[in-house]
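[Amino acid chain]
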Amino acid sequence: MLNVSFDQSEKSTFLYSPHFHFPTRNESESNQLNVQLSLPLNLDRNNVENFIWNGFDRYYGANIKNFLPNLISIRQKGEIQSTLGLKIASEGPIFIEQYLKKSIELFFQKENVTRKQIGEVGNLFGTNKTFTRQLFIIAALVASKAGISKLVFCATPQIKMILRNLCMSVFYIAEADPNKLGQESNHWGSYYDTSPELIAIDIDQAIYLIERSERYSEIAYTFSSQIEDIANNLLK
C-alpha cells in the first residue's frame, strides 16, 4: 500500500510550481545527496523504518506496522529526506491485494503482465517536496532496470496530484476500503479520511516522459550509478 504522507509546513508542502527546481549533478554533489537501498538485514534499516513511522504518526496519527522489503531513500549529508518501499509481487501477496477480489496481475491480463513485472510502492514519506518528487522519478528508473512494467499504489489525492504534475498517467484499479483490513484499519489513524484509491502507473510511459524532460533526465544522469546498484540488489 502507498503509505504516504509528507510534512505540511510551508517549506515542504508538495505544491506544483512552474518554477520548480531539481538539483543539477554539481548541486547534488555539493549537497552530498545520495540514494540508498535498505534491506531487512541492513544495519541502518531501523533508522529508515523510524523515519517512516514518525512521519505517519505525526501526520495521520497512524501506527505503521508493515514495511516493504526494499526501502529506498534520498539522503542529504547522511540525513534521510524522503523514502519509499518497494515489493515485487512475485515475492508473495502484496498489501493492496487485501482490498481486491482477484490477484493484481489479472488487472493487466490484456498486456500479459506477470507478477514479477509488478511492483508495489508503499511506506512513502518525505519532508521536502524536491526530494519526494525526485524519489518518484528514481523509483520509476529503478523499476525499469529491474524489469518491472507496472507500479501499483494506494494513493491519496495529494499523491495523485504529484503524479499528474509529473505528467504520469494513472490507471484506476479500485477504492481502498479500510473495512477489508479488519482490525488492522484501526492502526491507520486518519489515513482513510483522505479517500485513497488503488492505482497503477505504466513504467514504459514514465520512462518516455523522463527521457524527454531535461529536468527529469538530469536526475537519471545524476543518480545513474546508484539507480543501477539498487536495481541489481532489490529483493525479488
